[in-house]
Each structure stands twice: as C-alpha cells, then as structure tokens.
Amino acid sequence: MKLPLALDGAALEADLRRIEARDWTRHVVRQNYRGDWDVLPLRHAAGETHPIRQAMPVPGAIAHVDSPLLAGASYIGSVLTKLRCSLRNVRLMRLTAGSAILEHCDPGMNAESGLVRLHAPIRTGGRVSFRVNGTPVVMAPGELWYLRLSDPHAVDNDDAVDRVHLVIDAEVNDWLEAMLAAGQ
Fold it and tell me: For residue 29, what are the domain limits?
C-alpha cells in the first residue's frame, strides 16, 4: 500500500549518485535470487563492523546506529527524520538489470507482528515487475510503500537499468499505524 508521504524522487536519485560508487555487499541469502542483488547499509545494528552483518538485520539487536554512508545522503537522512517511529535497518538495495528476486517470504515482516519493511523506489524501469501474493505492485520514485513481505513476493528486473530502493525496517507505533490506515 502506498503511504501518504510524498518524497522528492530527484533528491533521492542525487543522494544515490553521491554514494553509489561505494562497495555494495552482495545479499547473503543467495538462494533467494538470480543475478546480482546488493545492499548498501545506511543504518545497522549497533556494534556491527562486518559489512555482511551491517547489511542485514541482526536477530535480537536492540540498538541501531547510522552508518557513515548516511552522512553523504542528506536527503535520505531528512526522510528518515520524517518517520516518527523507531527505525532498525535502513539500506539501499540494488537489483541489477536482468536479475530476479525469487519468490520467498520474510517471516515477521508485517504490521501485525510490529515490524514493517518500507520501500521507497529511487531508480527503476518500466520492465521491473514486483509482485506480492502474485499481484503486481507498481511503485515509482517519490513514493513510500508498505508491503506485507511475510507473504510470498518476487521481483523481476527485465529492464536495462538497475533497480534501487531505499528499504527501511520500522517498528509499528501509533504514528505508523495512522500512516498505514491512511494508505491506499
């Protein structure tokens, strides 16, 4: 569902251009994709120094800290401050042209469990297909989406451009519940 919080797609793209030359970390769950799916951590579990552990949610982690990369993405930082809820992992996720995320489920990633994964597309193409429960979800830069990713979902990037989303793991509170209730 699209949330009622408009973002500046051009400013997101500008932040991406400033930091995208950094070293991305390959997604560790390799059985869930074909091709290249990479992560650039912007916020991660406190105390984690290994790139893989910074790139992925760490079970049981309570405290989270901004990574130094976030300082180079001032607009993304301002977006995060607009989210009046506790944030856990925040990362850029890149699915390269011709790659696919195979159908899978992310257990516990739904509002009922108290933890949601929000998506803000930054760069995408017309031949990217994101599906949840087999239903296409068309997302555009400048939009913020809640997707119930504990349900089966998959992505095909049949476009010539890499698809990059800002992905935010957020704890559900009254503010976020109101955003979800107002979403469409």
Answer: 2-182
Tokens coding 164: 């990059």
**Tokens matching residue 36:** 């290249």
168 near 5, Cβ under 8 Å?
no
User: Residue 18 is part of a domain; what is its CATH number?
Assistant: 2.60.120.330
Instruction: Using a pLDDT cut of 90, give the percent of the chain over it.
Output: 92
112-145: b or e for each residue (b if 16 or more CB lie within 10 Å)?
A: eeebbbbbbbbbbeeebebeeeeeebebebbbbb
- Average pLDDT, rounded, for the chain: 96
Domains held by the chain: number: 1
Amino acid identity for residue 154 in this structure: A
